[in-house]
Automatic annotation (TrEMBL):
Pfam family, one: Porin_3
Domain of life (superkingdom): Eukaryota
One cellular-component annotation, GO: mitochondrial outer membrane
Name of the protein described by the UniProt record: Mitochondrial outer membrane protein porin 2-like
Classification of source organism: Eukaryota, Viridiplantae, Streptophyta, Embryophyta, Tracheophyta
GO MF term list: voltage-gated monoatomic anion channel activity
Family: Belongs to the eukaryotic mitochondrial porin (TC 1.B.8.1) family.
């Protein structure tokens, strides 16, 4: 794929990942294996909070084909097939759920050095069409997306955004809800302001922390125990209600 501006869905992703990625209150265990033929298999089990059940996911990779299968707590099975370069610079993604076949979708992504385009069609009785476009570079990108309901003939959504990505900071602004809201860590009904940071203690250890205006403090420690195998411990506490129990999460990813 090209080294262009990325997909519209990626706008603001790095800035959002700083505040959300790896923070969790679940227990997660992941194991990856690789064969000499280039086949990669990753299995992940997630226990949701204090529940006795959780999600199980498996990913299979071989050359330009990726297959993801996930079974949730209600025994719903989600399967996604991703094939790259059927046509040069494209990626095709087909997904469906069992037993809810109305949750299926077919998406085609096209990548160029200065632009990307996507089109997605839902596989239900009243199919909706989503499309998006992004122009720019890896450092600065402008994009927009829209959704169209083929039954009613109305646009269900349209969103625009700009993203700036540099080596020391990331920022983005999104104009969403059909132009009714500006999202830069804000929502329509209640405003939330979150600040966060990341610090690399050594080549194997990283710490992150975040605090929002409601007093919720989150922190995590991520350490590479052995090469390619990560241990992540995270937690969250409400500084305005210290009598509430804090949340803790544990994730282990093992790769040979």
């Amino acid at each position: 794929m090209s080294k262009g501006p990325g997909l519209f869905a990626d706008i603001g992703k790095k800035a959002k990942d700083l505040l959300t990625k790896d923070y969790n209150s679940d227990q997660k265990f992941s194991v990856s294996t690789y064969s000499d033929a280039g086949v990669a298999l990753t299995s992940t089990a997630v226990k949701k909070g204090g529940l006795s059940t959780g999600d199980i996911a498996t990913q299979y990779k071989y050359k330009n084909v990726v297959v993801d299968v996930k079974v949730d707590t209600e025994s719903n099975i989600s399967t996604t097939f991703t094939i790259a370069d059927i046509v040069p610079s494209t990626k095709t993604i087909a997904s469906f759920k069992v037993p809810d076949y109305n949750g299926g979708k077919l998406e085609v992504q096209y990548f160029h050095d200065h632009a990307t385009f996507t089109t997605a069609v839902a596989s239900n009785q009243s199919p909706a069409i989503d499309f998006s476009a992004t122009i720019g570079t890896p450092s600065i990108a402008f994009g927009a997306e829209a959704g169209y309901d083929t039954t009613s003939g109305n646009f269900t959504k349209y969103t625009a955004g700009i993203s700036v990505t540099q080596s020391v900071y990331n920022a983005s602004i999104m104009l969403g809800d059909k132009g009714d809201s500006i999202k830069a860590s804000f929502s329509t009904n209640e405003n939330t302001f979150t600040v966060g940071g990341q610090y690399v203690l050594d080549p194997l250890t990283t710490v992150k922390a975040k605090l929002n205006n409601y007093g919720k403090l989150g922190a995590l420690l991520q350490h590479e125990v052995i090469p390619k195998s990560m241990l992540t411990i995270s937690g969250e506490i409400d500084t305005k209600s210290l009598d509430k129990h804090p949340k803790f999460g544990l994730a282990i990813a093992v790769k040979p």
